[in-house]
């Protein structure tokens, strides 16, 4: 044996699985720590899964932003709502939600708003009650440069192309004239439209331009803004900002459920809300803020709105802002008109949560996000409430858990009948009793 003339042999051992599990101890990847918001439990190890971008930022996370993906009906909405409810238990948290879905005339977050005593900011171009909420793009709370940038974004989104130099000059001249002449009240969009239709000689003298030329340059711009003041988008942006909007509330909900998700109004609205929040909501006051956007492809799929939000994300990161984007398919954004801007925003999202997707979509998602092969293979097999979490390379399969208190506020779909709720509760209970299920 010493000189290699013989070999040692290990006799086979016959044992039961009950004995083997004591001999070969199970192992599990380390979690994300024990400080933050509990999401649920890891499927394979059974450990509690805790996640908080503010606790992890700078150590395990290079950016606090989060992307949530998955087919409808697999638990994205329930995750969003319980995450917000649990974050609000911390005193230094504040959340803004853009609620783009709903039924029965209210948004999907209406039950949560009622439970917390919050009045949603409901934007509706068809409101005839006289109580419609308005957001003024020319609100004095927004810097003059921010107002002009917002006006350009609105026009570019509506026109579908970048603003030409001559039209841009006409807009700038009109904005400058309004800022200089309007006093005693908030400047409003109709003032800009009037200044575009009737440019003053003073706005043309600097470059020795003819008034008629400047009027022609600004005609298309005036027609676009006219939609917001006296057209199909009237009722949301043409007046002073509505009094009583509480920007210090722990939860602010913009109810966009009355707006056609496929109309040009949605990206325009996203742009106005984004800039308005940037200048009036995000402040260096050590409050950790969460900006959650449903139907986020309206943002990422428009080059002009995506550029605006890209700047907001970079700026907000210094002030404690976590941006949460919820989309159904990654192809909705990476194959769209704003592919370059979408890629930049996706790179900022260090946390990615992927619910069930079809095999082809899962492979495409895995390639773009750089998910490991094993994770890509199980995504099509995931059941509702279970998702693959990738937190800056730490990949786990997580079962989202919902408390009895949260359940009535989470399942708000009318199609979720009482029988269906009971069946789902029983299924979750069975899964909790048998992790192998």
UniProtKB/TrEMBL annotation:
Family matches, as SUPFAM superfamilies: P-loop containing nucleoside triphosphate hydrolases
One Pfam family hit: AAA_10
Family matches, as Gene3D superfamilies: 1.10.8.730, P-loop containing nucleotide triphosphate hydrolases (3.40.50.300)
Entry superkingdom: Bacteria
Transmembrane stretches, start-end: none
Name this protein carries in UniProt: ATP/GTP-binding protein
